[in-house]
Write the structure tokens for this entry.
Amino acid sequence: MHDDETVGSGASEEVEVSADNPRPVNFAGLNNERPAPDPDTLPTAADPNGKCPRCGRISNFELLLGQVLRRRTFDRSLVDIERVSVLKCRGCTVPHVVIEQQGIQEDNRWDFGAGWHGVLWWPTPGSDDIDDTVPAAVAGAYDEGARCVAVEAPHAAVAMFRTALAHIVEDKGSEEARAKKDLYHRIEQMVEDRTLWESFGKWATHIRQTGNAGAHPEKFEPVTMDQAVDLQMFLRELLNFLYLQPARLSSAMLTARKSSPGPPSA
């Protein structure tokens, strides 16, 4: 094996992966080193710990299957650069899929200093439990934003979360709120109408402002991944408050009415 500096500066050539050209999967990375466990990140084969994309709980994961997707030759040695893994949550026991990449390509050369890192998870984290009580336009914008978070595209993510907020206002806002000239004043009217609590109104304003930065990066400071993840959490709580909890309450009340004993017979 080569050290990171040597491999990163060597000439490379991509090699086709096929059944006739097998390659064992080295899940420990180029130098057989695993990253330190980080429960605040999504799980990968390199670090099988973190928040489950299915159940949302912090858990440990079992590697069920791994397959190299791409590899390159560096100084006559084969190095895996892309792989797909199936991991099973030890909590909910439902598998998910993650695609990982080793290193970063810069100026036609590969730098492996960063090691393996996830680039795509399925299902998209945070979107698996959005049910049909959420309007299609709202859910679609939220899901698209969540997929942008999953591939670390923060500007696109926050712009879609702002779009989801605009759809919420159209769906839940009063006629007076929808008639306001812009999203800022529509949110203010929803707070005044008590459709949104004041604290949720502040969250909605934060989503609107950060979404503007994502849609117009030439006018604002760059949006970070932390900001995009926070915005996803804020929007998720809005969906929970406006759609999911009321639907669950209605369902529970209907079940209670059906199971309650009828009037005594004469």
About this structure: Residues 1-12, 17-24, 28-32 have pLDDT under 50 and may be disordered. The chain has two domains: 4-122, 136-248. Helices lie at 4-9, 136-150, 154-172, 175-178, 183-192, 198-215, 225-259.
